[in-house]
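Deviations from the work plan: none for this task. Representative record:
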Amino acid sequence: KNQVEQSPQSLIILEGKNCTLQCNYTVSPFSNLRWYKQDTGRGPVSLTIMTFSENTKSNGRYTATLDADTKQSSLHITASQLSDSASYICVVMRANQAGTALIFGKGTTLSVSS
Amino acid sequence: DVKVTQSSRYLVKRTGEKVFLECVQDMDHENMFWYRQDPGLGLRLIYFSYDVKMKEKGDIPEGYSVSREKKERFSLILESASTNQTSMYLCATRTSATYEQYFGPGTRLTVT
């Protein structure tokens, strides 16, 4: 079954600290993996897209890793800021002859406190 | 920059009303999508369209219909709103070239 599991479900950290969010997937055939940031009451905004051949991709203080062998990805946030408080959604694209489909994780809610 | 706009940020409707949610994009993307997002369930695909006048059912199409008369506009219709359709509705567009997907700001619909 095509699934995307994220952990933890929620996380609270102090401003300035680092954190890592996890994403495990069983989607096949794999096309790419995305991380989105969703502020409360807003639409998701793309942080990174990673294909099969990419192991690491950075976007400012956000660094995503992908291990296609173990089907795991992580999103590392460095020196967290209050504005990082949001939901982070891992999404995997499945692509085959029938077309493409996005499989969404349920998200990790991050709260950064001062 | 890609811009995806939705007609309302907040909407309150009564049970049984017909509801129209409109999405407009300015990037000439072929593909457009409607999702709903509920706590603990994540985003679920309602309908999508890969061209004008074309539509495909997503995972949860029951109780919804869509219309795409122009490339830039994709409408979601609730024929007879029910309380279980209270949710956050998100529109998205996607280019076939890069598969990058862009979301609108969302419409928080409450059906009473």
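The radius of gyration of chain B is 13 Å.
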